[in-house]
Amino acid sequence: MGCSLAFYLARQGRSVIVIDRGRIGQGATAACAGGIRAQFSTEVNIRMGMEAKRVLSRFTDETGHTADFRQVGYLFLLTTDDERASFAEAVRLQRRLGVDDVVELSPSDARALVPGLETGDLAGATFCPSDGLAGPNEVTYGFANAARRRGAVILEDTPLDAFLTQGDRVTGVVTAHGQIMSDDTVICAGPWSAAVGARLGLALPIAPSRRQVFVSEPFSGIERRNPMTIDFHTSFYFHPEGDGVLFGMSDPSTPPGEDTTVDWSFLERITAVAQRRWPPLLDARVKTAWAGLYEMTPDYQPLIGPLRPGLWVAAGFSGHGFMMAPAIGRWLAGWMVDGAPPNDLAAFAPNRFVTGALQPEHNVV
Fold first, then answer.
1. Of the candidates 45, 130, 91, 128, which has an alpha carbon nearest to the alpha carbon of residue 317?
2. Does the global pTM surpass 0.85?
3. Of 153, 152, 151, 252, nearest to 210 (Cα)?
4. Per-residue pLDDT tens for 306-346?
5. Residue 273 forms part of a structural domain
6. Where does a domain end: 280, 296, 312?
7. Which of 185, 240, 322, 334 could make an S-S bridge to 342, C-beta 3.0–4.6 Å?
8. 192 and 229 share a domain?
């Protein structure tokens, strides 16, 4: 998010400094599954997904770097009639907004897309072939290097020591490099954004939540062109990764926190779900695993916009930060430079939990 915003601000002539307490792209982004989709339930998120796909499709022309964007599609498997009805309504909205290739599928249609898929208990599915996967490292460093070429400075291994303020206005930050004065400061620290905001006494409703990812050795049960497949009822998902398969599942029993150790016993729970939904996975040998952090908000929508004079936030993306960054970087940069957002971002207002103006996202994995 920070590198995308830096690129679009620098492209508009702003002087930009990115501060990272570690190395860019090595936090939550390094642990994400790389999905890019427009199959959301709210208009603003659908538009963001569409914009992200447009940006990544022309990423080399825009930044000079590859995004490793593979439009293999997103396949959502729906178990209950309520899920099917909810996704059917979302498909109608997506198509009305211009996602022309999204379709509803029968269980047999879904089985034809993914060899070995068990679909006997499914109520339906949805599929969008222009959704897909991109490279988290490729996109992050593509934005970062393109921003540097336009004059942006990126300070790594540089923790934030304090904010500089003048009355209610934030005027910059203090790091080991000294004071850095700025007209605008943006908090886009992902799962750690609440802790950053707390330095100013702000209570940002963002909580870190662990997600675990497993990757197999080379595996003949999946092809590189197979779609990102999500069993929505259980959140079990898998997609091709190199010569193997990447898979995972959310764990509602995991308490909020910054723990990123891998719980290998959780693999047994995923295996039990896979046995019912995609039995070929049981023949795959796990090569590696890691855990990363989602940045959750109560309505699964991010906080985007001004917090105080001179202070902005772009955080709380609830698992969608990587796929939303290409759009939000451009939109937020336009807002900061021109004084108004180029798209309606009211659903992401940081004060919405006080005003009650909520537009929650339902298609969350």
1. 45
2. yes
3. 252
4. 999 999 999 999 999 999 999 999 999 999 999 999 889 99
5. yes
6. 296
7. 334
8. no
